[in-house]
Amino acid sequence: MSDSTGSIEPNATLRAAAAHTAIRLEPGHGQPLPRHLSLLAEADLGPAPLVWTDTRAMLLSAMLVARARNDALGEGLALIERYFDTGRLIQPAALSGPARSGLFASVAEYCAAIGWPQIGAHYAAEALLFAETPAQRYRALSVQALNLGLNAEYPSAAQAIEEARSLFADHGWDAADTSHCLLLGDGLVTVSNADMDHMREIADELEAAQPDDPYWSFSVGMIRVTTMFIERNFTTGLAASRELLLGSGRTRSFRIVRDLLVGLHADMLTAQGEFDEALAVLSTAVTHPGHAVCFPMQRAGILLQMGREREVIDTTNACVALLDEHCLRTLTPLLTRRAVAFLRLGSEKRAVQSMESVVRLIGRTGGSVTPFLMIPFDDTERLLDLVTEHNPDLVPTIGIMRQLLPAIAARSKGSGAFAVLTPTERELAYLLTSTLGLSDIARARNVSLNTVKSQVRSIYSKLGVSSREDAVELLQRPDE
Question: pLDDT, tens digit, for every residue of 108-145?
Fold first, then answer.
């Protein structure tokens, strides 16, 4: 049924669900009911009305949150563009400040859910601008923290988190009213600082707030796996991530959280040398516009460990071309992987340019060293040395980064052995450490078996060995 403006006229049940949900989006009233969110997530939002009223804004606000919290994200950014143009409502509006704040906060939450934190942060700022009560401000700050955290704008995210937590404490709201967005944003900032004790506290806080909500429980699991990964507890972390990703609870999880966990699972496999399985995990993973989770970046990290530097560049070229459409948080590790690949391929100038961009971005966004996760320590050190030589002004930033590198960077394996090989030989050497036979390697590299045999003999000669077994032992030997 449509009204005189051409908009979908909601039935009484839908209106009641939207009104009940809208009230509970702010602290002090409890969380929205799952049955209301399910109902709203399936509803047709319809076209923009001729004139926006508080009632229409409230309905859209509740529906957007319902889609974000029920993983009903099929329309992506097109859903927002149906009603907004560059951050403003397309049709005229006669809205109160609270209605505007609530609507913009819902848009920001939806943008975070679909992986567009660059856009979501703008709407969160608008929500803050129109907030008139502490509860409205808390909600706006919470979605702002998540979007800024997803986009690696850590100092601003930390400031929003601090203010939101102070508001929550000052007004004595119930712990069950804690914002899921705020805690996820806090988790992203905390990971950037490698503060594992606080990560565990955030997981505990999430679990205590909504112990029976499967969406929250999945987020708890993801945060705990993140802690295991950074602490290099890979065996336990892989078991926990498999349980989450393969369990029935996977169907009730937030897409952005689920995608983050898929990337973590692949990283842990890579850290244990299970390169083929890690690539298989990512083979069906979809990178959504905005690249808040960037699977080409994840694949590049695995390819780098395998010595397939040319593929690292090819895999990430499209991401670099996106410019401001690429999430900043995933862009810095992507550029780091490209810098290492360029260095190994002998393109020192391009390596320095890429690494300089990384250092400057990290310096401007709060000093996180998470882009160096999964990057061999010796490669990182060499690149930082080169950047220091060319850019003395970056010495203070690099000095801070070096302090955390030993705990963050991947341990180098056999780097001295690999150093004597050409880039082509390094790619083949990594394959020698797999279970593939020489014929399989020839097919994988699209060369003849005789070519592979010739290259293998060259590798043996440079390594001073006479068998594949001895070569593998040397290549996999950790640096002392």
Answer: 999 999 999 999 999 999 999 999 999 999 999 999 99
Last residue of a domain, one of 144, 179, 214: 179
The two structure tokens encoding residue 20: 């009940």
CA–CA gap between residue 371 and residue 358 (Å, rounded): 8
Residues 289 and 367 reside in one and the same domain: no
**Distance (Å, whole) CA 263 – CA 244:** 13
pTM: 0.85
Indicate the burial class of 361 (C-beta count within 10 angstroms; 0-12, 13-18, 19 or more). middle
Q: What CATH number is attached to the domain comprising 441?
A: 1.10.10.10
Question: Which candidate, 192, 185, 153, 157, places its Cα nearest to that of 361?
Answer: 153
What is the DSSP code string of 213-256? -HHHHHHHHHHHHHHHHHTT-HHHHHHHHHHHHHSGGGGSS-HH
CA distance 456 to 326: 40
Residues 364 and 237 in one domain: no
**CATH code where residue 88 lies:** 1.25.40
**Single residue among 179, 213, 233 that ends a domain in this structure:** 179
Q: Are residues 376 and 454 in the same domain?
A: no
Maximum pairwise Cα distance, the chain? 84
Q: Give dist(CA 139, CA 335) in Å, integer.
A: 34
Same domain, 329 and 420: no
Q: Distance between CA 93 and CA 381 in Å, rounded? A: 55
Residues 242 and 265 in one domain: yes
**CB of 195 closer than 8 Å to CB of 203:** no
- The tens digit of pLDDT for each residue in 246-294 reads 999 899 999 999 999 999 999 999 888 899 999 999 999 999 999 999 9
Alpha-carbon distance 257 to 435, whole Å? 33
Helix-strand-coil split of the chain, %, nearest 5: 70, 5, 25
Residue 324 lies in a domain: yes
- Could you tell me which of 114, 117, 152 has the C-alpha nearest to residue 371? 152
**pLDDT exceeds cutoff 80 at 10:** no
Are 347 and 401 contained in the same domain? yes
CA angle 475, 230, 242 (to 5 degrees): 85
Q: Which two tokens stand for residue 179?
A: 């914002």
**How many domains does the chain contain in total?**
4
C-alpha span between 434 and 306 (Å, rounded): 10
Domain housing 221: 194-293
